[in-house]
Design goal:
Shape: globular
Number of helices: 5
Mean pLDDT: 96
CATH architecture: 2-Layer Sandwich
Helix content: 25-40%
Oligomer: single chain
Strand order of the largest sheet: 4-1-7-5-6
Distance between the termini: 13 Å
Bound molecules: magnesium ion
Low-confidence stretches: none
Radius of gyration: 15 Å
Number of strands: 7
Length: about 160
């Protein structure tokens, strides 16, 4: 078995939709980035690629490539699973933490689990999503951005 870790952060900006775990969350700002800037899904994808010993998502989806502009990050996650599968691994479980001063994440966790479970081919019970504030400390604490940590476990296929 192989473990991996991922981390991502994006700035919040006006005029953008807030997408976390593939779910559109009502908020006055959204995350800024080349893709849909879903930092939770990016952190999970990087944890899978890392566990497989592969380069990070920037390697597979360069932000200089116009074909990935505003891409749904669930597609990035699906590709990470495919790349791990090519090496003979499947995702066994993931665990994550979202760090956001606002909005409240809790009410959206069930919907995120459902989206992620579908892409990862896992039951919801194999997906951990937790949320915390940054206690007003630093830029995340000032609400300037949202960050996410993820770990995953890969197991040999079959
Ligand atoms: Mg990112």
């Amino acid at each position: 078995m192989r473990i991996g870790t991922g981390y991502d952060v994006h700035r919040l900006a006006t005029g953008r939709a807030l997408i976390l775990g593939g779910v559109n969350i009502p908020f006055d700002r959204g995350l800024e980035g080349h893709s849909d800037a879903d930092c939770l899904t990016h952190a999970i994808a990087d944890s899978i690629l890392g566990a497989a010993g592969l380069p990070d998502i920037g390697h597979f989806f360069p932000d200089t490539d116009p074909q990935f502009k505003n891409i749904d990050s669930l597609q990035i996650l699906a590709l990470a699973c495919v790349e791990a599968a090519k090496l003979g691994y499947i995702v066994t479980n993931i665990d994550t933490v979202i760090i956001a001063e606002a909005p409240k994440i809790g009410p959206h966790i069930a919907a995120m689990k459902e989206k992620l479970a579908e892409v990862l081919g896992l039951p919801g019970s194999a997906i951990g999503i937790k949320a915390t504030t940054h206690e007003k400390l630093g830029d995340i604490g000032k609400g300037l951005g949202i960050a996410a940590h993820a770990v995953c476990l890969l197991s040999p296929k079959g």
